[in-house]
């Protein structure tokens, strides 16, 4: 097929999508491959991405798009680890802005013996993303991925910045786009660690949880949780992409190919209910990082520690290291109280640290 034929065929696909055409997984894979590898003019790429998202992509189509992103644009680290290797991440874009939670939750869970290959990025909305927090904690975001692999295999935890493992396709698209596409759903589902076999992925809306877990089932993830947390006294549409200590949390669970839905309250973790103001984001990334350090240094008996610990508990439950959320929360608290979580941060700094950025 010559260049003109390729352009015309892709143009016909755009028109078909606008008219309601539904792609197979293989057709979606090929279309997204051409977008990711910049094989179509930017005008056609943008038209395709917009037409597809506005038509409401199916799970099969999104799975094909994930296949293309994983195959052509995701660099990989390898874990020489037997057993679960977990990721803890949120979509961002949630209506309510909390202290960064997935980063300390990863350290706390790792302190319990769970291998954690945590990915993240700079802020999407709000004050700080995981990359901003880890940078404040002394992690070099520009370090080669080989150092992250060494950290995972040597310390049982690593941090994988999206800026490092996503290649040119993702970076080019995100930099230039100012509208929502399938990539907004697929980003949190990227798998830069080949052995990642369980994940806690918070969502900014309930329907996003449903879609993400369905995609995870299609791509073969054995176990996953997707929480959408709520705050008592506020409209249910104003939630957080974490397990909530302030009200109910809607959970979508994937276990061995089966998807279930249920709701948890703070009491299911063995904690009291806290006010949202107790976990609200502070003004800067540095302040949010200092809140993480306060907990890791032993302040484990307040709302912030409970917030971090119940989310670490979710990873312990998801990975099978705990039988239920309440016992998992006790394990997470012990990780903080014993100093194990702090030691995981120190080990991470040894492998992936920046000499010019000392933690506060």
TrEMBL record:
Molecular function terms, GO-annotated: anthranilate phosphoribosyltransferase activity
Binding-site residues, anthranilate: 90
Domain of life: Bacteria
Domain Glycosyl transferase family residues, every copy: 84-341
Chain positions recorded as Mg(2+) 2 binding sites: 241-242
Cofactor(s) listed: Mg(2+)
Catalytic activity field: N-(5-phospho-beta-D-ribosyl)anthranilate + diphosphate = 5-phospho-alpha-D-ribose 1-diphosphate + anthranilate
Pathway where it operates: Amino-acid biosynthesis; L-tryptophan biosynthesis; L-tryptophan from chorismate: step 2/5
Cofactor note: Binds 2 magnesium ions per monomer.
Chain positions recorded as 5-phospho-alpha-D-ribose 1-diphosphate binding sites: 90, 98, 100-103, 118-126, 130
Record-linked Gene3D superfamilies: Nucleoside phosphorylase/phosphoribosyltransferase catalytic domain (3.40.1030.10), Transferase, Pyrimidine Nucleoside Phosphorylase, Chain C (1.20.970.10)
Extent of the signal sequence: none
Binding-site residues for Mg(2+) 1, renumbered to this chain: 102, 242
Function recorded in the entry: Catalyzes the transfer of the phosphoribosyl group of 5-phosphorylribose-1-pyrophosphate (PRPP) to anthranilate to yield N-(5'-phosphoribosyl)-anthranilate (PRA).
Protein name in the entry: Anthranilate phosphoribosyltransferase
Organism name: Prosthecochloris ethylica
Phylogenetic placement of the source organism: Bacteria, Pseudomonadati, Chlorobiota, Chlorobiia, Chlorobiales
Gene it is expressed from: trpD
């Amino acid at each position: 097929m010559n260049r003109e034929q390729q352009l015309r065929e892709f143009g016909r696909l755009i028109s078909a999508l606008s008219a309601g055409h539904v792609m197979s997984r293989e057709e979606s894979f090929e279309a997204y491959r051409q977008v990711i590898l910049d094989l179509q003019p930017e005008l056609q790429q943008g038209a395709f991405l917009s037409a597809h998202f506005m038509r409401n992509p199916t799970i099969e189509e999104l799975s094909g798009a994930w296949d293309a992103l994983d195959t052509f644009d995701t660099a990989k680290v390898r874990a020489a680890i037997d057993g679960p290797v977990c990721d803890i991440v949120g979509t961002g874009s949630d209506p309510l802005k909390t202290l960064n939670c997935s980063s300390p939750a990863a350290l706390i869970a790792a302190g319990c013996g769970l291998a954690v290959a945590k990915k993240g990025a700079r802020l999407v909305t709000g004050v700080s993303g995981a990359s901003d927090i880890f940078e404040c904690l002394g992690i070099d975001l520009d370090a080669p991925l080989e150092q992250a692999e060494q950290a995972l295999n040597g310390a049982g935890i690593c941090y994988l910045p999206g800026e490092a493992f996503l290649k040119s396709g993702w970076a080019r698209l995100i930099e230039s786009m100012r509208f929502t596409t399938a990539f907004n759903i697929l980003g949190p589902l990227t798998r830069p660690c080949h052995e990642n076999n369980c994940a806690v992925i918070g969502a900014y809306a309930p329907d996003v949880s449903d879609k993400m877990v369905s995609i995870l089932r299609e791509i073969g993830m054995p176990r996953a949780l997707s929480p959408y947390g709520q705050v008592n006294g506020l409209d249910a549409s104003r939630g957080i992409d974490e397990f909530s200590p302030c009200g109910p949390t809607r959970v979508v669970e994937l276990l061995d190919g089966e998807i279930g839905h249920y709701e948890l309250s703070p009491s299911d973790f063995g904690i009291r209910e806290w006010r949202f103001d107790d976990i609200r984001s502070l003004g800067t990334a540095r302040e949010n990082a200092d809140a993480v350090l306060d907990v890791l240094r032993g302040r484990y008996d307040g709302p912030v520690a409970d917030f971090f610990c119940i989310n670490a508990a979710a990873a312990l439950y998801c990975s099978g290291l705990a039988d239920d959320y309440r016992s998992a929360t006790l394990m997470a608290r012990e990780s903080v109280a014993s100093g194990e979580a702090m030691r995981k941060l120190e080990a991470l700094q040894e492998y992936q640290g920046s000499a010019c950025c000392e933690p506060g």
